[in-house]
Amino acid sequence: MVRIVINRLWALCCAAVALTIFVPIARTQQPLAGGEAALNSTEINHRNDDYEYEYDAEWPRLNRTLGSVSAVAFDPSGNVVIFHRGRHVWNLLSFDQQNRYLQEKDGPIGESTLLIFHNESGALVGEWGANLFFMPHGLTIDRNNSYWITDVALHQVFKFDLTVSSSNPVMTLGVRFEPGKDHEHFCKPTSVAVLENGDFFVADGYCNGRVNKYSADGRLILSWGKNSFVLTR
């Protein structure tokens, strides 16, 4: 059997404290009657080749314990980037009925919340994000290696250009710790998707149930969801 290291992360358990990557083993299937190959729960069919996956206990190589992992992304070099919550835990005591974060007094997460791993070896090649975030959620890395991040406690969306700064975002949307439903506020935004021309979408997820589209420089273009549709230009 030939081992092939996957350069993608096939499974992530957001509540787990460890990140895993799987290694497929190429194998030949004996066809059953009718020409169909037998597949069990550990096998998938991919481009007419059958693979069996096994857990790689040595990926990633990390000598610390992670908090709840909220997101995983790949940078343009193929490295795996994870976003985790450190010691902060989202539970019934985290927010009030108006979706305001109740644990601001505890301060931001003091450790690096973004860890960058080599996609094959699992070695830690970079880290940042200490003392910036309260309740990490979404992570998107665009083709220019800009990091788009959402924090549901802050009710904000951030764009970071690491060639400029890893502590000060180049763009911030939303009002710090203020949930809302107008076009200046978010309420627990969940994720970002970026188009090739730089325009981007924000899923303003848990409370507002809407999607906002912005120009590359952060101007609102349109918004829809919650039985509403608003075109601003």
TrEMBL record:
Ranges occupied by NHL repeats: 122-163, 178-217
Binding site for Zn(2+): H137
Pfam families noted in UniProt: NHL
Entry EC no(s): 4.3.2.5
Protein name, per record: peptidylamidoglycolate lyase
Cofactor note: Binds one Zn(2+) ion per subunit.
Needed co-factor(s): Zn(2+)
CDD domains named among the record's database cross-references: NHL_PAL_like (cd14958)
Residues annotated to bind a protein: R85, Y206
Enzyme class: lyase
GO CC terms: extracellular region; membrane
Biological process (GO), any one: peptide metabolic process
Keyword Iron annotated: no
Binding residues annotated for Ca(2+), in chain numbering: V72, L139
PROSITE patterns linked: NHL (PS51125)
Keyword list, A-Z: Calcium, Disulfide bond, Glycoprotein, Lyase, Metal-binding, Repeat, Signal, Zinc
Residues of the signal peptide: 1-28
Disulfide bridge positions per record: C187-C207
Single GO molecular function: metal ion binding
